[in-house]
Every structure is written in C-alpha cells, then in structure tokens.
Design a protein that fits this description.
By secondary structure, this protein is an alpha/beta fold. The chain is built from nine helices and ten strands. The protein has helices at about 45-50, 75-85, 100-110, 120-130, 145-160, 175-190, 205-210, 225-230, 235-245; strands at about 5-15, 20-30, 35-40, 60-65, 70, 85-90, 165, 195-200, 210-215, 220-225. A six-stranded mixed β-sheet has the order 6-7-8-3-9-10, sandwiched between helices. Helix 3 (about 100-110) packs across helix 4 and helix 3 runs parallel beside helix 5. Mean pLDDT is about 85; it is low at about 245-260. The structure holds adenosine-5'-triphosphate (ATP) and magnesium ion (MG). Adenosine-5'-triphosphate (ATP) binds near residues 41, 42 and 46.
Length: about 260
C-alpha cells in the first residue's frame, strides 16, 4: 500500500515579478522520514519551505498537511498549523538580549504551548537533547557559533513539532560539528518522532543522514530517491552533465524509481 504523505505539495508556483522561482513543485513528505532538499543556491529551497509554513502565498498549486488543504488559509488559520510544524530558519539567530533559557522558552511562551511552571523542565530536556546541559543562564554571545546553532535547535525542538524543517543546519560549521549536528538531527527524529526535512548544500551530510533526497532544479523537484538510488545513477552521462551544470557533487538522473513505500 502506498504510504499517505504527511505533507503534500502539488504544482506549487511562485514568481516575484519576472523571476519565476518555483514553477511547479510536487513534493511528498512521509511521516517519520528524514528527507533532504537539495538544490543550487538561489533555486528556491528556502522559499519552498517558507511557503510550506504559509509565509508566502502561492501563485498556484496546493499545500496539504495531515490531509487538510492549507492553500487558501488566511494568516490566522496558519497559526495552529505552525504549532505542529517547526522551522529552524537559515538565518535563525538567537536573541542576544535573552539568556539561553529565555531563547529556548521563547516559542513555548509566545504560542502559549505550556504553562509557565512546566517550561523549565521542557527547556532543560531540550538543552540536554542537544548536548548543552546546564547552559540555561548563559548569554548567546558567550557561546561559540556551533553552540549557538544547537541552542537554536533546542528552541525548535522545545515545541515538539511533528514536522520540522531545518534550513542549512550545518552551514558554517567545522566537520566535527557537522557530524555532531547530523547525529543530533537523527536522534531527535528517533527520540521525539519528528519528521525531518533538511535543506543543505552538504552532500556528504545528505547521503549520510537521509532516507530520501529531493532535488530542486529549474523550479521543480527534478528527482527524488534514496541515497542508493541517487548513487546508482552516478555513471549516467546525462547525469554527469547535470551535476557539472549544477556545480553540485551529486549524482542525479532524468528519472528515478518512485519513493520507497513506508
Ligand atoms: N521575498 C522575496 N522577494 C523577492 N524575491 C525573493 C524573495 N524571497 C526569495 N526570492 C528569490 O527567490 C529565489 C530563491 O531564493 P531562496 O532563498 O529560496 O534560494 P535558496 O535555494 O534557499 O538559496 P541558498 O542555497 O543560497 O540559501 C532567489 O532568486 C531570490 O531572489
Ligand atoms: Mg536558502
């Protein structure tokens, strides 16, 4: 039986003036999977995930989450959806004027997800999960870049979303921290059952962590498949051309088998 997608995107289109960024995007995200969205800089990866959170209205197409049609939702209708879908933005900065504790608690308080007396336990649990125990009273500027990224991760997972988008979670990190963050994302998926969508340029990470890869190219998801399915296409000359053109160290093909059944 074909798995039902947790989130379905169909024929999604978005242009800014003459600039058609997303022409017709079709994408399924399956419950519990670790999906990586790949594509060259400027291909519209960040835009796509922001649109899946209702931050930009589509020109055309459909968005469906948990079987519910979101496409024509108004701003206030998106609010309960965003309680279930988390996002770690590419530019996710911490609030410098707040302690680590207040940063991690921020979304819980803003969305009134937990009563105030339950927040400390949730913050502590979230900081432990990103291997930053006991940092509650520290200030962001006292932390390294890698630690700040992990605090931002703790802030995202504190909300216990069912689906979480991470936009470039390992950008700017050294290889040791890249590996650490990758392990973390996998463990958070496993521990909290968070369906995970990662946007990255890091091929090594994508192949190491993902159940499936999706490649955004020319305004469409050009192909999807498991890392093995992408890997199997590496000798296809057409793909090599495509890889060279896209300047990505990525084996790709004109067509891939359909996504695996879950
Ligand atoms: N608010 C906006 N107004 C106008 N154009 C926008 C807006 N947001 C995105 N774009 C355009 O959409 C295109 C895709 O941008 P986006 O940030 O999604 O790319 P990306 O794939 O995430 O790139 P990167 O890998 O560098 O992060 C760019 O051409 C950008 O100029
Ligand atoms: Mg981006």
């Amino acid at each position: 039986m074909q798995a039902v997608a947790l989130y379905e995107v169909r024929g999604l289109r978005k242009a800014f003036g003459e600039n058609v960024v997303l022409e017709s995007v079709d994408l399924d995200v399956y419950e519990g999977e670790f999906l990586t969205l790949l594509g060259v800089s400027g291909s519209g990866k960040s835009l796509l995930v922001k649109m899946m959170l209702g931050l930009f209205p589509p020109d055309a197409g459909q968005l469906r989450f948990e079987g519910e049609e979101l496409t024509s939702f108004e701003e206030r209708e998106w609010i309960p959806v965003r309680r279930k879908i988390g996002m770690l933005f590419q530019e996710s900065a911490l609030f410098d004027s707040m302690t680590v504790f207040d940063n991690v608690a921020y979304g819980l308080r803003e969305q009134r997800l937990l009563p105030e007396d339950e927040i400390p336990a949730r913050v502590t649990e979230s900081l432990n999960a990103v291997s930053l125990p006991g940092t509650e009273e520290r200030w962001p500027k006292e932390l390294s870049g890698g630690m700040q990224k992990r605090v931002a991760l703790a802030r995202a997972i504190a909300m216990r979303p069912g689906l979480l988008f991470y936009d470039e979670p390992t950008e700017g990190l050294d290889p040791i921290n890249v590996t650490r963050v990758n392990r973390l994302l996998l463990s958070l998926r496993d521990r909290f059952g968070i369906t995970t969508v990662v946007v990255t340029h890091n091929m090594r990470s994508a192949f190491a962590t993902s159940d499936r890869l999706a490649f955004l190219h020319d305004g469409r998801i050009a192909r999807t498949g498991t890392p093995a399915e992408f890997d199997a296409l590496i000798d296809d000359p057409q793909l090599r051309h495509f890889v060279a053109a896209s300047r990505l160290d990525l084996p790709t093909g004109e067509s891939l088998p359909p996504p695996p059944l879950h």
